[in-house]
Amino acid sequence: MIHSFSLRVYYEDTDLAGIVYYANYLKFIERGRSTLIREVGIDQLFLKKQGYLFAVKSLTADYHASAQMDDELTVKTVLISVSGAKIIFDQRVFNSNKLLFSSIVTIAYVTTGGRPVRLPSKTIEKLQQFAA
Questions:
Q1: DSSP-assigned states of every residue in 55-105
Q2: Which residues are catalytic?
Q3: What are the pLDDT digits (tens) for 33-44?
């Protein structure tokens, strides 16, 4: 199942050339992942109060084309795998059907002190609906 998150490009997202600044694609995919996690019923603020959080462990980033101010973009997220203390997502940013950006992101489940811990089985079950 593919999770979709839509957003519009604002002036603040662009650089001097009028195109989306490269680092902002990382913000866009973060919003897509955070929205997916919220929509499956995982409350990240509650987890933080309990001493746990999700942290980016690694990612790859490929830039395919540029977006400009006022473009309507869609972030599509698919869960590649979830096991132990990590989750791997395939995330892509599109303008209509045109691929702009793609990324494979590995998220670690850690204590607020940074120590990896196993994902709770209920969390895994909630995320599995977006498995590839």
A1: EEEEEEEEE-S--BTT-EEEEEEEEEEEETTEEEEEEEEEETTEEEEEEEE
A2: 15
A3: 999 999 999 999
